[in-house]
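Format notes (please read before filing issues)

Several people have asked whether sequences and structure tokens are stored in separate files. They are not. Every record keeps both together, in the order shown below: the sequence lines, then the token lines. Line labels are part of the format and must not be stripped during preprocessing.
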Amino acid sequence: MIEYEIIRSNRRTVAIEIGLDERVLVRAPKRYPKYRIQEFIDEKEEWILEHLDKIREKKVGIVPLTKGALSFNCLLMLMSDEIQDYVVVHELAHIRYMNHQKEFWGVVESVLPDYKERRKRLKEEGAVARQRFLAMK
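Then the structure lines:
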């Protein structure tokens, strides 16, 4: 069983945050049932770790040896692999550059030359994922 900490707030969706030290935080709405959080962890935790490993293996050098965390909204799991890859690379680049300046986008582009197209598609797929998530409640 995976150990995790739950942080509740007024948010509307569930998000998982995985530190580079493998500490797991789940950010959830105040009234979201604990059993649903456990289902989410059971279903998605392995996928997220595997996905991060895949990106790290392919893109050595994007992540410096620092303590940090990557946070993923549950809606991401409802999107295409291409969009998931974009979000992971985007978040990994933020560990190196905590802004959206030229250097940041240079890192993203070095990994995903078509990042601009993926960024546009993220907005489209995000709207569809949001509707799917609301329908599951």
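For reference, the curators noted about this record: The chain has four helices and four strands. The first strand starts at residue 5 and ends at 9.
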